Design the sequence.
């Protein structure tokens, strides 16, 4: 099954979801070593790029091994978005750009960004149009949620506007902003989206894909053209091999023995040390991954404490050396949720934001980046 996003062909039809603090270059390369797909960066602010922020431009860098250089941007000002896209394209940094309309984090939504932006129909259409116009041959895609809550669903209107301005693909995380990462993704809404836009515009589904069979089931049930995988691959880059097998009609291998996982960790560490060229920073970023790598394996409380305390590469290798390579994952952990599972306790929006759906007035974007939604 092949997915086409502009000139990019994906077989299997799989996209790695942008995740703050997770989908950096080392993790993207590691996932790609296990299976095919499009591997998207952490979310960047358009304003940060336009203002020349060193951190933003550093995050916009790609590893030489990345064949399709993919970035996700967020912003609520059409002019700023257009200029950020133009600079990325003119400097030859990207092969694909995704726009974030799904992040529910208050520091993003309070400025009208992320999941808040689709409330303003004309503004979100203007942001998409500016990005598409500035991108030229580089495909622009969008990732969104169903809406703020069940009373303010915006995904169908936003998708139709995206198709009208020439967006190359549309991804839906089938939860509302207030759901956050709680509850169950509503795959039936992905099917509604697929029916709402022209067949030539690919629709991707996101939410609750924990295994290769989940991905195939989502496509079969909704008719979507591909899947976006987020929390399911945390600590499990091998999932991309299972996704590739499932879409090819083969039986996925499932979770490997712990010895394979420790080899993956060593490779992740190697990539991180090389990319960041600063051992303390590389190891600090690896800590959260270490907890996910061990999730579901009966390694004991001491090992779990130890991975949260590593400071050096030698510390990491010492922890790995003490693990039993023959351990198998616990059966109940195979499809258990990973990462965040919380709802958004307080939806934060600009004053009067929902009272002016046709306003074209944006709110200033902060120079921050958060979850990809």
Sequence:
């Amino acid at each position: 099954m092949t997915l086409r996003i502009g000139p990019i062909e994906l077989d299997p039809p799989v996209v790695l979801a942008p995740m703050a603090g997770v989908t950096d270059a080392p993790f993207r390369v590691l996932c790609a070593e296990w299976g095919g797909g499009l591997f998207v960066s952490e979310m960047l602010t358009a304003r940060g790029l336009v203002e020349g922020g060193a951190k933003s431009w550093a995050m916009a860098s790609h590893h030489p091994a990345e064949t399709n250089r993919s970035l996700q941007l967020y912003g609520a000002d059409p002019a700023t978005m257009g200029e950020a896209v133009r600079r990325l394209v003119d400097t030859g940094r990207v092969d694909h750009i995704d726009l974030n309309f799904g992040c529910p984090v208050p520091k993003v939504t309070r400025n009208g960004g992320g999941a808040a932006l689709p409330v303003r129909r004309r503004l979100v259409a203007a942001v998409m149009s500016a990005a598409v116009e500035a991108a030229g041959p580089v495909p622009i895609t969008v990732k969104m949620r169903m809406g703020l809550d069940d009373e303010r669903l915006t995904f169908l209107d936003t998708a139709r506007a995206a198709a009208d301005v020439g967006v190359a693909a549309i991804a839906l995380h089938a939860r509302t902003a207030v759901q956050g990462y709680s509850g169950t993704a509503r795959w039936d809404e992905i099917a509604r989206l697929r029916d709402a836009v022209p067949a030539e515009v690919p629709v991707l589904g996101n939410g609750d894909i924990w295994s290769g069979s989940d991905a195939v089931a989502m496509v079969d049930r909704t008719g979507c053209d591909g899947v976006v995988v987020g929390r399911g691959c945390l600590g499990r880059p091998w999932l991309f091999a299972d996704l590739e097998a499932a879409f090819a009609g083969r039986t996925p291998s499932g979770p490997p023995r712990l010895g394979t996982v420790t080899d993956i960790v060593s490779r992740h560490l190697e990539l991180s040390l090389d990319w960041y060229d600063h051992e303390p920073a590389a190891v600090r970023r690896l800590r959260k991954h270490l907890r996910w790598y061990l999730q579901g394996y009966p390694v004991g409380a001491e090992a779990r404490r130890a991975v949260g305390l590593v400071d050096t590469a030698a510390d990491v290798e010492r922890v790995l050396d003490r693990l039993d390579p023959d351990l198998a994952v616990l059966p109940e952990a195979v499809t258990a949720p990973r990462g965040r599972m919380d709802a958004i306790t307080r939806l934060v929006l600009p004053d009067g934001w929902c009272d002016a759906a046709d306003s074209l007035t944006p709110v200033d974007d902060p120079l921050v980046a958060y979850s990809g939604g």
Observations:
- The chain has two domains: 3-254+344-355, 258-333.
- The longest strand covers residues 38-45.
- Residues 228 and 275 are 25 Å apart (CA to CA).
